[in-house]
Design a protein that fits this description.
296 residues, Rossmann fold, alpha/beta, 3-stranded antiparallel β-sheet, single chain, 5-stranded parallel β-sheet
Length: 296
């Protein structure tokens, strides 16, 4: 399967360094799986709507990230309404995190790809970003060319902008200690991970030590896999839920995740440490299942 993915990636028109798994790649993988094994039973989620996929799966990780962030802020007496937000990345997670954050009243002013980043003080134009990245599969220089208010900068720097909330949605180890220091100096209130482990350990510790609300990706980016489970449920029942049904279930899942990690952090005397809360809540869930089955 790995070799198949490499072959597919090599033949796509995604710019080098930006190859990812989207609906098109899942379609290729699923088709080849069926051809090679002569089995129809699905082993992949994120499928196309015409062959077992779920509405809202594309949006799920980004939307879920923002739903959890909103619940975090609500629990601390505020909301995304009126907040300035920085987002890194320009793939599915970033695009739909930007979209949902702006639907909830925030102004998202940054995005990035593997060669540079955009600062748009008027707020990222989601429709234009989708056109550049999902339709043209082009670089962010095309966003700049179409949006006079935007600044394009090569290389790193997305975390240098003064914002209230930061959502790293690009790749592993993208938010370094110097970036954390810049965010703190600029008064950032919360950092929630959309990518897998985008914040280095040193940066994570610095943010926590300086009073920034920090939620790790193992909790805050769970919306994608949660909606994959919802896709599997629909497949099992031979049903197709509406976008609104899936989105409502996703929101409920992310709200519950936040409260689970918050409760775990409080239970063990580490209130506000959502890294510890996520680790403990996850561990306890596995442990309870093992105990119930007589494994330990």
């Amino acid at each position: 399967m790995t070799e198949l993915y490499r072959h597919i990636g090599a033949d796509t028109d995604v710019p080098a360094g930006d190859i990812g798994v989207g609906g098109r790649e899942i379609g290729f993988l699923y088709g080849q799986y069926k051809r090679i094994t002569a089995l129809y039973e699905g082993v992949l989620t994120g499928k196309g709507l015409t062959y077992g996929g779920s509405l809202a799966r594309t949006q799920a990780t980004g939307y879920g990230l923002v739903y959890l962030t909103q619940e975090l802020l609500k629990d601390h007496g505020t909301s995304l309404e009126g907040k300035t937000v920085s987002v890194s990345g320009a793939g599915n997670v970033a695009i739909y995190a930007i979209e949902k954050a702006q639907q909830l009243g925030a102004k998202v002013v940054t995005c990035s790809d593997s060669t540079g980043w955009i600062y748009d003080p008027e707020g990222i134009d989601v429709a234009l970003l989708k056109e550049v990245k999902e339709v043209k599969r082009a670089r962010l220089t095309e966003y700049k060319a179409a949006k006079p208010s935007a600044e394009y900068h090569e290389g790193r720097g997305v975390w240098s902008i003064k914002v209230d909330v930061a959502l790293p949605c690009a790749t592993q180890n993208e938010l370094h200690l110097d970036d954390a220091k810049a965010l703190v100096a600029n008064g950032v209130y919360a950092v929630c991970e959309g990518a897998n482990m985008p914040t280095t350990l040193e940066a994570t510790q610095y943010l926590q030590e300086n009073g920034v609300l920090f939620v790790p990706g193992k909790a805050s980016n769970a919306g994608g896999v949660a909606t994959s489970a919802l896709e599997m449920s629909q497949n099992s029942e031979r049903l197709s839920w509406t976008f609104e049904e899936v989105d409502q279930k996703l929101q409920g899942i992310m709200v519950n995740i936040y409260h689970n990690i918050d409760a775990a952090s409080k239970k063990y005397g580490m209130e506000g440490n959502y890294v510890a809360g996520a680790n403990i809540a996850g561990f306890e869930k596995v442990l309870n299942a093992m105990e119930a089955q007589g494994i330990v």
